[in-house]
Amino acid sequence: MAFTSRLLSRSKQMTQLCGGGSCSQVILKKERAIPVRFFAKEAATQALAGDEMLKSIFMDVKTKFSAAIAALKQGEKITIAPEDPAAVAHYAKVMKTVREKAGLYSESERIDHSIEEETEDILDVRTYLETVKELATQDHLFVDDGAEAMMMEALEKVEKEIKKPLMRNDKKGMGLLMAEFDKINK
Fold first, then answer.
1. Whole-number pLDDT of residue 170
2. DSSP letters spanning 143-154
3. Which InterPro entries does the record cross-reference, listed alphabetically (predicted)?
4. pLDDT of residue 13
5. The pLDDT of residue 121 is above 70
6. Where do the domains of the chain lie?
């Protein structure tokens, strides 16, 4: 108890002596140093559930950014001249190459890529259209304006006409389906 009161009175004296400023030299004299012992280890921070997800997202973005920078360093020179159509075309070509190398696709390219990946093994048109509809629903792009129903009706009409399920590699049947789609669009 006596020690704490003496320490408090000394701290008041130091505050008055220093005028409220920094007095680290006065406080840390050797004869008045107080040894401090820590008995408990510092508590380690617990990783939260979203930390790993954020870390993986960050690493993914970092990897793509590094790949884009590396592609730009290796690539051709870019001339920015908005009035020159050849320079604009060259810039677009270089940037498309950089995005492809880095895996940074535009929204439409990403959608096309996911459709191609998901539907490459599908042989019949009906399953293809249903899969595309599911993908659009997953990406929140599906709008129920009746177009899908009309497309399915056109598909049924073509399948009745050819008397078998329409396959994607059937050029004649696909031509008939495209003609039906053109009628719907008019």
1. 87
2. --SSHHHHHHHH
3. MGP1 (IPR031432)
4. 52
5. yes
6. 54-102, 107-185
